[in-house]
Amino acid sequence: MKIQTILAALAALCIPAAALADAGHSHGDERAYGQPGDPKKPARIVQVTMREADGRMEFVPRTIEVRKGEQVKFVLRNNGAIDHEIVVATLAENLKHAEEMRKNPDMEHEDPNARRLAPRKTGEMVWKFTKAGEFDFSCLIPGHREAGMTGKIIVK
Question: Where would one find the signal peptide in this protein (predicted)?
């Protein structure tokens, strides 16, 4: 076998970093709804509570308004009796991810735009909203979004 053939075969096995960033959960910098924030920089604090109430699952608040370019530190609290998560993304991305979660309900997230919390636990997430638009936040544990656990982020 010629060395050029071997080198071509090896090159074909190499996957560009950009392709890896788009596979499954992306970890790139800029997304349609912004980018991971810098915890060392100032941020507006937005408290978000996850809970079950009156036969529903919900986030409080359900709507969050943000200025384009603003960095937000989400201070999260699960006041519920079961695990909940928050995933910030476009509505289309969250609906697609929800399908993946139905196939693999124990999927764990290590993404800068998502946090899962056990009952009575707290967490934080820092995100910078670099683009105007309406974006989604949802709990993608199977059945939770359908039970009302979704909200909207409006970036002006």
Answer: 1-21
* The pair of three-digit structure tokens given for residue 9, joined into one six-digit string: 């075969």
What pLDDT score was predicted for residue 85?
Answer: 95
**Listing from the earlier edge strand, what are the strands of the sheet with 114-117?**
63-66, 150-155, 133-138, 84-89, 114-117
pLDDT value at position 29? 67
Task: Give strand ranges (E) for 31-121.
Answer: 35-36, 44-53, 56-60, 63-66, 71-78, 84-89, 114-117
Domain contains 14: no
Give the global pTM.
0.79
Q: Can you give the pLDDT at residue 105?
A: 77
- Would you give the DSSP letter of residue 89? E
| 116 located within any domain | yes
Q: State the CATH number of the domain containing residue 119.
A: 2.60.40.420
Q: Which two tokens stand for residue 93?
A: 């991305």
Query: Are 117 and 59 spatial neighbours (Cβ–Cβ below 8 Å)?
Result: no
Q: Domain for residue 129, yes or no?
A: yes
Question: What is the pairing mode between strands 44-53 and 56-60?
Answer: antiparallel
Domain that holds residue 68: 35-155
In three-state secondary structure terms, 48 is: strand
Assess if residue 147 is contained within a domain. Answer: yes
Q: Which residues of the chain fall below pLDDT 70?
A: 1-29
